[in-house]
Amino acid sequence: MSQSMGVFRCVSCPEGVTSRYREVVVDGTGAPHYALTEFAWQMNQILSAGAARTYVRVLLPYAHLSPES
């Protein structure tokens, strides 16, 4: 996915890492953002991959407003 919006971006899970998440949302420092990563995973469960990416990309510019970041 590797799309970047603002300080948050989606990155593919590194090879060799076992995780249910194929993509992880990280902040500007590279730290994972759990809530957005979980949201992306849930969207991938119910929508096509393209639609899920769209939903996540639309939220990334507003992620700095979340209490977690």
What features would you describe in this structure?
- With 69 residues, the chain is of the alpha+beta class.
- 35% of the residues lie in helices and 16% in strands.
- The chain is built from two helices and three strands.
- It has helices spanning 34-46, 49-59, and strands at residues 4-5, 8-12, 23-26.
- The longest helix has 13 residues, at 34-46.
- The two termini are 21 Å apart.
- Mean pLDDT is 82; it is low at 1-5.
List the helices and strands and how they pair.
Blueprint: E1 4-5, E2 8-12, E3 23-26, H1 34-46, H2 49-59
Antiparallel strand pairs: 1-2, 2-3
Helix pairs in contact: 1-2
Write out key terms for the chains shown.
3-stranded antiparallel β-sheet, 2 helices, alpha+beta, disordered N terminus, globular, 69 residues
Quickly describe the structure:
With 69 residues, this protein is of the alpha+beta class.
Subunit arrangement of the protein:
single chain
Enumerate the strands of the largest sheet in spatial order, edge to edge or round the barrel: 1-2-3
Beta strand count: 3
Write down the secondary-structure element order: EEEHH
Distance between the termini: 21 Å
Low-confidence stretches: 1-5
Global structural class: alpha+beta
Largest β-sheet summary: 3 strands, antiparallel
Helix content: 25-40%
Strand content: 15-25%
Outline: globular
The helix tally amounts to 2
